[in-house]
Design a protein that fits this description.
The protein has helices at about 35-45, 50-60, 65-90, 95-105, 110-140, 140-145, 160-175, 180-210, 210-215, 225-245, 250-255, 260-265, 270-290, 300-305, 310-330, 330-340, 350-360, 365, 370-400, 405-410, 425-435, 440-445, 455-465, 465-485, and strands at about 10-15, 510. With about 500 residues, the chain is mainly alpha-helical. Keywords: Membrane, Transmembrane, Transmembrane helix.
């Protein structure tokens, strides 16, 4: 059946679990086409962190073609859980925090959503710091050489660089204040501009290096064994790069018009990521020819290029690329997680502001000290958190629920609700999450220097953290959930139409 904007549905909803940001999307809100989904990914991919990740692979010793194959392979693998997780968002119009209630329970859903929020806050800080560094480059040399540019040991950076970071931090807060419609408009406007600016950088390096053969002349410095030792953590890092967004992709797919729109639109990810990686690796390789050294950080590269107009265009491009990546990828999920935590107090805007403040607390300048720390500590490290959550949610939706969710019970705290489980927590999901994470912990402790040595098995597990945690947690959850007696209920008959409310004093009736 079709809805009209004036058609009201009544849903047995608890106000502690529901507000305007958590309700299923109505037909009038479903405005994302194939083009919108595709431009969302184009705008998010074209950014400094993706460039920096590509350059880091060369910096760590890979040849340009090895880096591209690693990135493309990772994104093809990630595309599978990305599309599968987006399906219930489009099917039922629900966001990630609401979807997580099915597997983790009405209250247990706070665990995965807050973990996702934590990672998003860290990324928000990283992206903002990168853009702030670009602002710092534009300042006159007299200011950059002043006492304000001297690093403070307790802060870990200089007051001037920190001030530039705060300026861009504020610009993004203002941008996100417009909500999801503002994000959609920004992505559509920015995508073609970012493609043009990226192409310009590639053409510049092509001309300066004297052709493509010189740009890609940097060969691998790794032996066969060294390459494979680097390949698997690099593959994990590249999967982990978009794994947080793959986890909460339903926050966006809930606005898609049809399943075809979200599937076809998202299929551009490996293509765009591969193309942008090629540009990033080609430009990074060309710096060896042009400057006599490899420069993987694009901010540092812009400083070497010089020229006022070049700097202005570079600042504009980096700022635009950062906003179009940071806002949808790293603000939406934490904001929605906080809304889910307390719908009666948090709104999307308040959640976004808290996310921005947490981004400062992460001290992103320390996370970007080296390629090793960025790739093998930050990216691989948090993949051990994203993998098991994704595995549990997909195992629940496709193998336990069999694509049938009771929308009514997703918003109900009734003890008789399907997703109430044990006082709102599904112990099977919690146990599977913990067991999925534990094997990765020893390798992580060694990587950050807390322990000096661990058995080689744990190093291998850490280097493949996303894969191992994803499959182990998903499989264990499937076993534990199958052992639990399924309640007798009828799932939502129409994915867009919640069933009629039952008479129950535990419920507060809301209308959409």
């Amino acid at each position: 059946m079709k809805w009209s904007d004036s058609y009201n549905l009544e849903l047995n909803s608890d106000p502690i679990l529901t507000n305007d940001d958590l309700k299923p999307t109505s037909p009038s809100q479903r405005c994302f086409t194939v083009f919108d989904m595709a431009t969302l990914w184009v705008a998010m991919v074209v950014g400094v962190p993706a460039y920096y990740l590509a350059g880091s692979l060369v910096d760590l010793g890979m040849a340009w073609w090895q880096g591209i194959l690693t990135v493309v392979a990772a994104n093809i693998i990630l595309l599978v859980p990305l599309i599968l997780t987006a399906q219930p968002g489009t099917h039922y119009g629900i966001s990630f925090p609401v979807l997580a209630r099915s597997s983790f329970g009405i209250h247990g859903a706070h665990i995965p959503t807050l973990i996702r929020a934590f990672i998003g806050c860290g990324w928000y800080g990283i992206e903002s710091w990168i853009a702030g560094s670009a602002v710092f480059l534009l300042l006159p040399e007299s200011i950059k050489k002043s006492s304000f540019s001297e690093s403070l040991p307790w802060l870990g950076t200089s007051p001037l660089e920190f001030a530039c970071f705060l300026v861009f931090w504020m610009v993004q807060v203002v941008t996100v204040w417009r909500g999801i419609d503002g994000i959609r408009s920004l992505e559509k406007f920015s995508a073609p501009i970012l493609i043009i600016l990226t192409s310009s950088l590639f053409i510049w390096s092509y001309l300066k290096a004297g052709g493509l053969s010189h740009m890609l002349s940097l060969s691998s410095t790794l032996s066969v064994s060294e390459f494979w030792s680097l390949f698997f953590p690099s593959l994990t890092a590249n999967i982990s790069f978009w794994a947080p967004l793959a986890l909460n992709i339903s926050d966006f797919s809930r606005y898609a018009k049809t399943q075809n729109d979200q599937i076809i639109g998202q299929a551009v990810l490996p293509i765009v990521m591969g193309a942008f990686t090629f540009v990033g690796l080609a430009v990074t390789s060309s710096t060896q020819v042009i400057f006599g050294k490899v420069i993987s950080n694009p901010i540092e590269l812009l400083g070497e290029i010089g020229g006022f107009m070049t700097m202005v265009l570079a600042i504009f491009g980096i700022s635009l690329a950062t906003i179009t990546t940071n806002v949808p990828a790293n603000v939406v999920a934490p904001a929605n997680a906080l809304v889910n935590l307390s719908p009666t107090w948090f709104t999307f805007r308040r959640g976004a502001l808290i996310t921005a403040l947490m981004g400062i607390a992460f001290q992103p300048w320390r996370l970007l000290e080296s390629s090793e720390k960025f790739v093998n500590t930050w990216l691989v490290g948090y993949s051990a958190l994203m993998g098991p959550i994704s595995g549990i949610i997909l195992s629940d939706y496709y193998f336990i629920q069999k694509l049938n969710l009771s929308v009514r019970d997703l918003y109900s705290r009734s003890p008789y609700g399907v997703y109430y489980y044990s006082r709102g927590f599904h112990l099977a999901a919690v146990v599977a999450l913990v067991i999925g994470i534990l094997p990765v912990v020893p390798g992580f402790l060694k990587k950050v220097g807390i322990v000096t040595s661990v058995p080689d098995t744990f190093v291998v597990i850490y280097n493949n953290a996303w894969f191992i945690s994803f499959f182990s947690a998903g499989f264990l959850y499937w076993i534990l959930a199958r052992l639990r007696r399924k309640p007798d209920y009828s799932a939502t008959q129409d994915p867009m139409l919640p069933p009629l409310p039952k008479k129950n004093s535990d419920f507060v009736v809301l209308s959409f």
